[in-house]
């Protein structure tokens, strides 16, 4: 269990973090989302010991993180930290050795990652000759090579094509199944919704929403009713409860209370009801509302 508890951080007059609190459970994939400058990278750097918080704590299983704990973490920074003239295979093995692996173990782990991340044909290429997407794959391999106990990844899917996204998602899911907590930031909210068990939304240094993805969608979807009525009597929505958004035959009502049966009755009188149901928002819609 990784716990971020009441983190505060200021840079002069600017507040970077204002009481950030969340946790990532063993075997959980946690998506950390927010606009540029919201505080995601600052939080991750404090978690990894790159920065020091002004106040608050970072815990593992209820105790403060140590240097030795962090050595067993896998970290991928937003800015690539690779040696540009070093070959791909040498690079991954080198970082494995830095993490305390023996040469044989580092070599075997590297071979496995070259295959999993589709880098085999680039194994002897220097990093500076690779496309940005392939450099991203190498950076990911560096974070994964030592079989980390915790993964902290800052924008790991940035610049990857759909096949590479799927390959990485499979690797992360595999690590989760083995009990590894995985924390990653991303601007690709559809991807976060698809992959993550839980999510935290940060805005201007404050957590504005967090929890299990499905729970958030259920909670934020209360009172959102979608109705489609074909050949409806003009003006039939006049007087309906809640806020009304109309798009042709489709009507979206927000702020509805009760079971909606009276609305269904009115819709049936107005025309042919093709769809009537409560609508859960997407993570993108929740994000937009939370940071507004």
UniProtKB/TrEMBL annotation:
**Name of the protein in its database record:** ABC-2 type transport system ATP-binding protein
> Which Pfam family name is an example for this entry?
DrrA1-3_C
GO CC, alphabetical: plasma membrane
Q: Does the keyword ATP-binding apply?
A: yes
Q: Which GO terms describe its molecular function?
A: ATP binding; ATP hydrolysis activity
Q: Where in the cell is it found?
A: Cell membrane
Q: Which family does it belong to?
A: Belongs to the ABC transporter superfamily.
The main location class comes to membrane
Membrane disposition: Peripheral membrane protein
A biological process from GO: response to antibiotic
Name the InterPro entries on file: AAA+_ATPase (IPR003593), ABC_transporter-like_ATP-bd (IPR003439), ABC_transporter-like_CS (IPR017871), ABC_transporter_ATP-binding (IPR050763), DrrA1/2-like_C (IPR025302), P-loop_NTPase (IPR027417)
Q: Where is the ABC transporter domain?
A: 2-229
UniProt xrefs under PROSITE patterns: ABC_TRANSPORTER_1, ABC_TRANSPORTER_2
Keywords attached to this entry:
Antibiotic resistance, ATP-binding, Nucleotide-binding, Transport
Keyword ATP-binding among UniProt keywords: yes
